[in-house]
Amino acid sequence: RRFSPDGKGATITGADGSQSYYWNTTSATLVRYTKYRLYYLQQVGGGTFNLRNRGATLNAVNTLGTLGLQTVEFNFVDNGNALNKDIRVEDVTGNVTIYGVELIDELATSGFTYDVAAIAGGALSELMALDTSGITTLATNRAYDTVVINIGTNDSTQGRTAAQFIADLTAYKARLVAALPNISVVIVTPNNMQFTNFTGSTRALYEDARRAYARANNLMYIDLPSEVGNFNYLYSLGYMRDGTHPNILGQDKIGL
C-alpha cells in the first residue's frame, strides 16, 4: 500500500485472466459521472487488466514499468443499460495492485465534491509512512480548495507523543501545500472518546499542541467537543454507532 493515496487498495497476484472485480455504483441513483480515473501501481513484472464501465468497450491497461503510482482516465459510455454505471476491472493477468477509482462529473456547474482519505483504525503516522506521491497526486488531480484534518486519536492510543504527532502533522500539511500552494487547511480536535484511553492528560496534551499549531500557522481551528458536545452526550441522545463513532444522525449534527 506504499503508493496508495490513503493506504487502501487491493492486490491480485498470479491472476490467470479469469479474475474480475467491479465498483457497484448502480444502486447509488444520485451518482452521475462523465469520466472515471483509476489509481494503480506500476511495477516491475506488473500484469494487465481491462477497464470499462459495464457494457462499454474494453480499455487495456498494462501495469508493467518502473515502480510508482499511476492513473488512467476514460470517458463514461452511456449505452442505455440500467447497470452501465458499474466500473469493472476484468481479465486480470499476473500481479496487479489497484488503489481506487474516482468518478468525475464534468457537467456540474455548482455544489462541491469531497473525498475521505483515511485508514480505518489508523493513525497519522501511518499516512506519513506512505509515499509522498500518493497524496500529492490525489490532491493535484482533485484540485482541492480545502482539506479538513481530523486525526490523532489512534496516534495517541498507539503511544505517539504530542510532539511526534505535531511533527507528522507539519510534514503532512507540507505535502498538501507542495501539491496545491493555495490550499486552505482546517484543523479539527476529535471529540471525547468513550471506551478508549484517549482521555485525561494525553488528550489535553494533544489538544493544546493541536490548538497551538493551528494558531502559529494561522489555520482555522474547530474544537469539536465545544461545538457539538462530547461523545458521551451524543451517545445519550442516540447519535452514536458505538462508543467512538457517530452514526448518520450524529454525523449530520456534527456537519451542521
What would you note in describing this structure?
The protein has 256 residues and is an alpha+beta fold. It is 29% helix and 28% strand. The protein is built from 8 helices and 9 strands. It has helices at 124-128, 132-142, 153-157, 162-179, 200-216, 224-228, 231-236, 248-255; strands spanning 10-23, 35-42, 48-53, 59-62, 68-75, 87-104, 146-149, 184-189, 220-223. The strands form 2 sheets. Strands 1, 2, 3, 4, 5 and 6 form a 6-stranded antiparallel sheet that branches. Strands 7-8-9 form a 3-stranded parallel sheet. Strand 8 (184-189), helix 5 (200-216) and strand 9 (220-223) form a beta-alpha-beta unit. Helix 4 runs parallel beside helix 5. It is globular and about 55 Å long. Residues 194-198 have low confidence and may be disordered.
